[in-house]
Amino acid sequence: MTTVTPSTAADRTGVSIDTLRYYEREGLIGPIRRSPGGRREYTEEDLFWIGLVTCFREAGLGIADLREFVALLRADHPPQNRVAFLRERRAALEQRVAALRRAMDVLDEKIAYYS
Amino acid sequence: MTTVTPSTAADRTGVSIDTLRYYEREGLIGPIRRSPGGRREYTEEDLFWIGLVTCFREAGLGIADLREFVALLRADHPPQNRVAFLRERRAALEQRVAALRRAMDVLDEKIAYYS
DNA sequence: CTCGTATCTGGAGCGCGCTCCAGGTCAAGA
DNA sequence: TCTTGACCTGGAGCGCGCTCCAGATACGAG
Q1: What average pLDDT does chain B have?
Q2: Average pLDDT, chain A
């Protein structure tokens, strides 16, 4: 399996090495495989997963949310609450979109007023 | 002019008294008028403005952004950059909406997969 | 006037999400 | 072999946005 060094992983995901280690400590990614010498070796799957985490972070989900999300999506988890949890998260994101729309409406009004 | 005590202002805006004072210190609201004894007296305009600030905070704008926003909207400001600034903020909010949509798409995919 | 509650100020403390640092290890090139 | 630079760990530090606290003052009800 072809793997990649920490600095390359950082370059390719846009996430700093420190943050990658932080995410791993927090259980959001990995655990990442190690070389005989103890260095991390990121697989393509790892990079993909980091992309998912980044996507959710950019959407404003907190570390604790993501930890729960990860735990739920890891294959070994009993699937019972999965869909409910996912729907709940989706609804929360919709709330955030609504808040953004309200703010944008205010801005539009001000823009119209000053134009 | 009818005014309102700090605790009433907090109740009506949903913002804690401490946070109201914090916002005032940071220049996001007020300065709030004082009674002879030194207590704050919030006018209806103050409450309305607090609502605006809250709206933007909920949309994820930072304190520094809001300070700039407030400075720009306060009547005495030269109007030259106003509209540009507002449009810029609007674009930033649109970016955030886009990030949320990406995350929601991922969730939808997972929901479909597990349903 | 007294009591109790609300409010005042300045400043400390906190949770989050990184970010940085010291001191040491590993590994590729000259 | 020696040097150089990427990487390791554990832990400290930081900026943000509150939130809480101590000690003092204001003020309405009885």
Answers
A1: 94
A2: 94
